[in-house]
Prior knowledge:
By secondary structure, the protein is of the alpha+beta class. Helices cover 19% and strands 31% of the residues. The protein is built from three helices and 13 strands. The chain has helices at 14-18, 41-59, 120-133, and strands spanning 3-4, 24-29, 32-37, 68-72, 76-78, 81-83, 87-91, 110-114, 138-143, 148-154, 159-166, 170-171, 181-182. It starts with a strand and ends in a 13-residue tail after the last strand.
Amino acid sequence: MPMVADPARRQASYDDVLRAPEHTLAEVLNGDLYTSPRPAGPHAEAASVLGMDLGGAFHRGRGGPGGWIILFEPELHLARDILVPDLAGWLRSRLPAVPPTPFLDLAPDWACEVVSPGSERIDRERKLPIYAREHVSHVWLVDPLERMIEVYRFDGDGYRLVVTRGGTDIVRLEPFGAMELELEALWPTPTTDSR
C-alpha cells in the first residue's frame, strides 16, 4: 500500500527516491515521497500484455504504423515531480531515440497507469493533475480487477473522459486507434483447481 511521508517535513527530492528501500517503487508527487511495493500479478499482467501489444505495433511497427517510443515504467522528472507510470509513449517526432540517462525530463504524449486498490487514489488525485500540467495528450487508467479501461484526452484545461470500455470488448482507443486491442487479454486469467 503506498505510503506518504509526513507532510510537515521538507520537500522530498530525488535523493529520497534513491534512498528508498529496494524492491519498492518511489515517486515524488507535489513534494511528497510515495513508496509502494512492486505490483501484484494482475497489475503486472495487464501492463505487460498492453506493452507488448502496443510496443509491437507502434514502437516497432510490426502489424501497426510505428512512429512511437513505448517504455515500461520509465522514470519521469517533470519539474519537481518524479513519476513512474506503468507505461508511457512519445511520438518519435518529439523523442527520436531513448536517451542514455536513467530518467527522462520530456513529458510523454501518452501515459498509462494500471490501478490497484492501493494506488488508484494516487493515480487519479495526484498523478492526473501533474500529467495535465505537463500537457500529456492522453492518459489511460486500466483496472484489471474491475476489468475496465478509461481513456482521457487533454483538452487544454484538464482531462475529458473519452471512453470507458471493458470485459471482452475489442476496441480501438486513442491515440492508438490504428489497431484493435482485445481487452480480455489484459485481465487476470481465472485459475482452476487441478486437485
